[in-house]
Structures are given as C-alpha cells and as structure tokens.
Amino acid sequence: MTTVIAIVGTLMGSGLTAFVTARTERRKDEALERQQIRQEGAQDRTQLRELRVEHRKWRRERRQAAYQGLMDAAHEAQGAVWQLSRLTLDPFDQQRYDVRRGAAIDAVRATLRAAHTVQLEGPPSVAEAAAEYAEAVDQHIGPPVQYLIELSEGPVSDTVNERYQARAAETATHLENMHRRFVPLAREALDELMSEAGERP
User: Are 60 and 193 in contact (CB under 8 A)?
Assistant: First the structure.
C-alpha cells in the first residue's frame, strides 16, 4: 500500500510538474509571439516611413525637373522672340522673318508643353502659375509678329511703331511678373516636399 501511495504521489508530482512546466512554456511562447508581432509591426512602420520618404524625394525630383524644364523653355522662347524683334530694326526680309518666326513659334510651343508637364506634377497653385507664365510667353510673340506683318507691306508710321513699342514693353513686363510669381511658388512646393520627407508619420 505504501508503495502504491508512493507511486501515485510520484505520478501526481510528475503530472503537476509537467502541467506547470507546460503552462510556463506556453506563457513563454505567447510572450515571444507577442514580442515578435511587436517587432514585425515596428519593422513594417519603419519600412512604410522609408517608402514615404523615398516617394516624396522621387516626387520632388520629378517636380523640380518639370519646373526647371518650364523655366528653360521660357528662357529659350524669350531669346527667340528677342531675335525675331531684332528684325523690326531693319528693312523687311521675308526669309529671315520666316526662319526667326518659325524658331520663335517652336520655342513658344515648347514652353506650353513644359507648362502642361508642370500641370501634371502640381501642386495646383504652381500648375496655375505655370499656365499663366506660359501664356505670357505666348503673348510676348504677338507684338513683333504683328509689327513685322505690317512692315512687310511697306514702311510703317510712327504711330504703328509707337504702338508696337508700347505693346512689346507691356508683354515683356507681364512676362517678367509671371516669372516672378512662378518661381517662389515652385520653390515653396519643393521645400514643402522636403519638409514632409523629413517628418515622421
């Protein structure tokens, strides 16, 4: 009987020990699993943050390229219009007019295309300023073309010449104003993206 009690006691002790050990192991496993879930969550958040930063940098690079493309195209167009306007100082020459007018029109069209790219890249305030900037470039070609068309028909009066000078000055001023409006808005949009890239979500 004593032996039976000893065997039963040993079995119960072993069973209790096994139960306690299993429960402890289960708790350890659960704690490890929770820790692993927290670590994976932290890694996911870090990866998401890094992806957002990379996306903002990519977006900034695209915008910067679009903004610079517009400014370069507008500069080229202004140069082409200036070359065209130089013809107003000499007797009319159809061949020179055709060449320079074609170059100016091509440059203005390139500016309008560059403005369309900016409109795709945004943001809306910069897109609107880009459209107005390109429109000012387009308007700037008008005065020399109109004057040279009149000059092609013969000598022009002082009134026509004065009207041309006034209109050319007006479009040049408007163009400069649109350039001055566009640049700070573009810079602000680029700086804003860099600020966002440095922030933690």
Answer: yes
Cβ pair 92, 144 in contact under 8 A:
no
Query: Which residue in the block uniquely carries the two structure tokens 């000059």?
Result: 151
Q: What is the pTM of this model?
A: 0.74
DSSP run (H or E) holding 120: helix 94-121
The tokens describing 39, both together, are 């670590």
Task: Report the amino acid identity of residue 186.
Answer: A
Q: 37: part of which helix (H) or strand (E)?
A: helix 2-86
Q: What is the pLDDT of residues 92-102, one digit of tens each?
A: 999 999 999 99
Distance CA 14, CA 193 (A): 66
DSSP 139-157: HHTHHHHHHHHHHHTSPPP
Structure tokens at 13: 């002790």
Place of tokens 């007019």: 97
d(CA 89, CA 102): 19
Q: pLDDT tens digit string along 38-64?
A: 777 767 677 777 777 787 888 889 999
Contact indicator for 135, 76 with CB cutoff of 8 Å: no
